[in-house]
Write a structure and sequence with these properties.
Blueprint (H helix, E strand, L loop, with lengths): L2 H30 L5 H12 L17 H14 L3 H4 L1 H21 L6 H9 L1 H5 L7 H16 L8 H18 L3 H18 L6 H27 L2 H7 L15 H15 L4 H21 L1 H19 L14 H15 L4 H18 L14 H10 L7 E4 L3 H10 L13 E3 L5 H7 L4 E6 L3 H10 L4 E8 L3 E8 L2
Helix pairs in contact: 1-5, 1-6, 2-19, 5-6, 5-8, 5-16, 6-16, 6-17, 8-9, 8-10, 9-11, 10-11, 10-15, 13-14, 14-15, 14-16, 14-17
C-alpha cells in the first residue's frame, strides 16, 4: 500500500470516528431530556388537541409545521406518551440518519481526504445538535434535503423502465413536499440536474417521464400552498417576526449593503458553527473554491447543490423565505458539502500547501465543536428547573410569577405531560399579564415570592425592576443566558 492510499484510509477512519461521535452526542443530548421550549410546546399542543386529519389544516398558536412531520411526531408520542423524549424521537432519528446520508454525499462530491472536515462541523456544531433534539421540523428538513440530493446522484438513475422512473420520482417529490416544505427548493435542483443528465447521456426517453413527475411536484406544492402556506404568509405576526431576516433589495438598495452582508455572514457563521474571524474566512474561501471546482469539473451533477442555494437566496430576497438560521438549516449541509469540495480541490496542490490547509482546518474545526455537550445539556426554557429553584427557597406555588408569553409551557406540564398529576400544583402559579397592575400585585405579595423570566430584553427587565424589585428584599437568584429566577422577601 503506497503512502497516498494509506493517507486516504487514515482519513476515512478519522471520518468514521467522527460519524460515531456525532451519533453518540445526539443520543446523549436526547437522553439529557431538557424541558420543551415555548415554540415546541405550541407545536405539541396542536398535535395533542387534533386528530391526524386536523394536522393538515393551518395550525393554531402562530405555529407552522408540515403535516407529515406532525403526523410522525403524533404517532411516536401516542405510543410512548407525550413526554419530552417520545416527542423528540422522530426528530432525533432524522438527525442521526442525516449524518449517514451526509457522509455518503461528501464522498460523492468531494472525496475521502476531505470527508472528515465538513463531517466534523455537521456532527459537533451546536446548531445541528440543538435542533436535532427539537419538536420542530428542522432535522427532518435536513434529512429530506440530503436524501433528495443523494437519490439524484446515485448510480443507475436511468436503468429502470420509464414508467418506474416516473412513478418513483413522482411519489418521492410529492411526499417530500408534505414532509418538508423547503424540499421544493431541492426538487428544483433535482429536476433540472436530472433533465440535463438525461439529455447529455442520450437518455432522452426519460425526459417526458421527468417532466410529468415535475408537473406532479408542482401540483402537490400548489395544494400545500393553498391549504397551509398561504395562511402562514398572510400571518402578520410571522411576517413581523421574520422581517429582520429578509434580504433588503427594495428602493434600489445594493445586495451588498450592511444589512444584507451582516445577515448572510450571520447565517454562514451558524452554518460552520463559529462566528470567529479565522474559521469564517477560511470556510468562506473553501466555499468559493468549492463553487468554482463544481462549475469547472462537474457542473451538471453539481447543479443539484447549486440551484437549491440560488433558489433559497432568491426566495429570501423576495421575502418569501427567511435567513433565520434554524429555518434555513435544510440548506446548511449543502453549503458544507461545497466547503468539502473546496477542501478536496486544495488538497491536490503541493504537499506543503496540503499540510498547511489541513492544519488550518483542524484549528477551524476546534472552534466549531461542542464536545462539552457530552456532559452538559443545552438549556433554553427550563421551567421545571426554575420552579424547583423557587421551591428550594421555600416559595409557595401561588407566589411564583411567570410571564404570560410562557403560559403554554405551564399548560404542557399540567395538562399534557405524562407526569401532569405530579405537576398539578403548578396550577396555582400566577401569570404576569401584559397589562398587570403592578401596584396591586405588590400589595398582594405577603410572603416570599419568585419571579421567572425568559429571554427578556434589558428595557423590559428594567421596568420590572422599577415596578417590583425595588419594593422587596432580594434573597437569591438563578441567572442563565436564556432565563432568570429572582427570589424576594418582604422588606422589614
Amino acid at each position: 500500500m503506497n503512502e497516498r492510499a494509506r493517507n486516504k484510509l487514515s482519513s476515512q477512519w478519522v471520518a468514521l470516528t467522527i460519524l460515531c461521535g456525532g451519533v453518540a452526542i445526539r443520543f446523549v443530548e436526547w437522553f439529557h431530556c431538557r424541558d420543551l421550549m415555548m415554540d415546541e410546546v405550541n407545536v405539541v399542543r396542536n398535535i395533542f388537541e387534533r386528530p391526524y386529519d386536523g394536522l393538515f389544516r393551518p395550525l393554531a398558536y402562530e405555529q407552522f409545521a408540515p403535516p407529515l412531520f406532525l403526523s410522525m411526531v403524533k404517532a411516536t408520542s401516542t405510543l410512548g406518551g407525550f413526554s419530552e423524549m417520545s416527542l423528540r424521537l422522530f426528530p432525533i432519528l432524522c438527525s442521526i440518519l442525516s449524518l449517514f446520508v451526509f457522509y455518503r454525499l461528501v464522498l460523492v462530491f468531494a472525496g475521502k481526504r476531505s470527508l472528515w472536515y465538513p463531517l466534523a462541523i455537521f456532527s459537533f456544531a451546536e446548531i445541528y445538535i440543538q435542533y436535532a433534539n427539537d419538536v420542530k421540523q428542522y432535522s427532518s428538513d435536513i434529512l429530506v434535503s440530503l436524501l433528495l440530493v443523494f437519490l439524484a446522484v446515485k448510480r443507475g438513475l436511468f436503468s429502470s423502465s420509464r414508467f418506474q422512473f416516473f412513478l418513483q420520482w413522482s411519489l418521492i417529490g410529492m411526499i417530500a413536499v408534505w414532509l418538508s416544505m423547503p424540499s421544493i427548493f431541492i426538487l428544483t435542483g433535482v429536476g433540472i440536474s436530472l433533465f440535463i443528465q438525461a439529455y447529455n447521456d442520450r437518455q432522452t426517453r426519460y425526459l417526458l417521464p421527468l417532466i410529468g413527475a415535475g408537473i406532479l411536484w408542482m401540483l402537490s406544492f400548489a395544494g400545500y400552498y393553498w391549504l397551509l402556506l398561504r395562511h402562514q404568509i398572510a400571518s402578520e405576526y410571522l411576517q413581523l417576526f421574520h422581517a429582520p431576516y429578509f434580504l433588503n433589495l427594495s428602493n434600489g438598495k445594493d445586495l451588498f449593503d450592511s444589512h444584507n452582508i451582516g445577515l448572510m455572514a450571520a447565517f454562514f457563521s451558524s452554518t460552520i458553527g463559529s462566528g470567529r474571524h479565522f474559521p469564517f474566512f477560511l470556510n468562506l474561501a473553501l466555499l468559493l473554491v468549492g463553487f468554482y471546482s463544481i462549475l469547472r469539473n462537474n457542473a451538471t451533477k453539481g447543479l443539484v447543490l447549486l440551484i437549491p442555494i440560488f433558489c433559497f437566496l432568491a426566495a429570501v430576497a423576495m421575502h418569501r423565505f427567511t435567513l433565520l438560521p434554524r429555518v434555513g438549516l435544510f440548506v446548511m449541509p449543502i453549503l458544507l458539502i461545497v466547503v468539502g469540495v473546496g477542501l478536496e480541490a486544495l488538497l491536490t496542490i503541493r504537499v506543503w500547501f496540503q499540510w498547511l490547509t489541513v492544519a488550518a482546518c483542524v484549528i477551524s474545526a476546534g472552534y466549531s465543536q461542542q464536545l462539552r455537550l457530552f456532559t452538559s445539556r443545552i438549556e433554553i426554557d427550563e421551567l421545571t428547573k426554575e420552579i424547583a429553584f423557587a421551591r428550594k427557597n421555600k416559595v409557595s406555588n401561588h407566589q411564583i410569577f411567570l410571564p404570560e408569553l410562557y403560559e403554554p409551557n405551564l399548560i404542557y406540564y399540567t395538562k399534557i405531560h405524562p407526569n401532569k398529576t405530579r405537576a398539578k400544583s403548578y396550577d396555582s402559579i400566577q401569570i404576569l399579564k401584559w397589562k398587570t397592575n403592578y401596584t396591586a400585585l405588590r400589595s398582594g405579595i405577603v410572603n416570599r415570592s419568585a419571579f421567572i423570566y425568559f429571554w427578556m430584553d434589558d428595557g423590559t427587565m428594567q421596568r420590572h425592576r422599577d415596578s417590583i424589585f425595588s419594593f422587596f428584599q432580594p434573597i437569591d437568584s438563578f441567572v442563565q443566558p436564556s432565563y432568570k429566577v429572582f427570589v424576594f422577601d418582604q422588606k422589614r
